[in-house]
Write a structure and sequence with these properties.
homodimer, 156 residues, alpha+beta, Arc Repressor Mutant, subunit A, Alpha-Beta Plaits, 2 domains, four-stranded antiparallel β-sheet, 5 helices, 5 strands, DNA-binding, DNA-binding (chains A, B)
Amino acid sequence: MKIIDQNVVIDGIDKTILNFLMEDAKRPILEIAKNIGITGAAVHQRLRKLEKSGLIEGSRLIIDPRLLGYKTMAFVGVYLDKAVSNPLAVNKLKEIPEVIECHYTTGNWSIFVKVLCKDNEHLMKVLNKNIQGIEGVSRTETFISLNQQINRQIKI
Amino acid sequence: MKIIDQNVVIDGIDKTILNFLMEDAKRPILEIAKNIGITGAAVHQRLRKLEKSGLIEGSRLIIDPRLLGYKTMAFVGVYLDKAVSNPLAVNKLKEIPEVIECHYTTGNWSIFVKVLCKDNEHLMKVLNKNIQGIEGVSRTETFISLNQQINRQIKI
DNA sequence: ACTGAAATCGTTGCTGC
DNA sequence: GCAGCAACGATTTCAGT
């Protein structure tokens, strides 16, 4: 777990550059530069500074998993027998490709995960065989996302 | 809501290309091409085909929001008075920048949202003022993510 | 920190296989 | 559907301010 002890200080120009690229990482730098009113070289310098600061983690190509048959998204609250088995359970969850998020949360559950499956049958297999099969998992509660209406990054 | 009625058919080479770029959208195409054993031009052709199919939604620059002071992530289950107020509530949620995901789910809640705030005080403001202030919202249940251990896309 | 130009590298289009 | 090459466009670097 990475410890964050200090914020990165950025100005309005940095924010504009980041907001552009957070929407579309392939947006030409010269276009962004023209929009701001500085040259492409200046934008590039700022991007290098932001990369070095660790604020920029990288870039990802975003695909629509539904077009590959992944049509069932679900959230699963996981109860663990003892709190001590948490890191072990997380390691086991990492090995399940259908698990795309995993959180250690306050409240009823020890662990909260987001899974993406092809259909309900696939989800059932992941729940019963993979997740329930992990040592220490006593019970799970599942919520199927019938429709995701918002999916975005924070506006900075 | 986009209706998906047919899957996009892709082969192993397409999968390899996509998996590379889903991890790092800036990965040089020539490098990927060499890895597969075809030319960069061929990789381009396939990418254009995949874009046209709608499978590729775009690319995003990924930043670490914690370095900008956004250190509190939470999941909020929202109870609505009547099911009919759902689309209206979603529209109101879209106007709250701290709401980064919104799902229509099975189970106890009508709507399930993921919010990203600077700290607990900020979260409290978003909950009490913004979310609870939406017409039709009767009650909310909040789970704070103390630590996100997995965050990835589906492996195809 | 930014500019402007030069060099480098990635992308796209074309022709032939 | 892919290779090879040429033309284009974008990124990156660097001296100068």
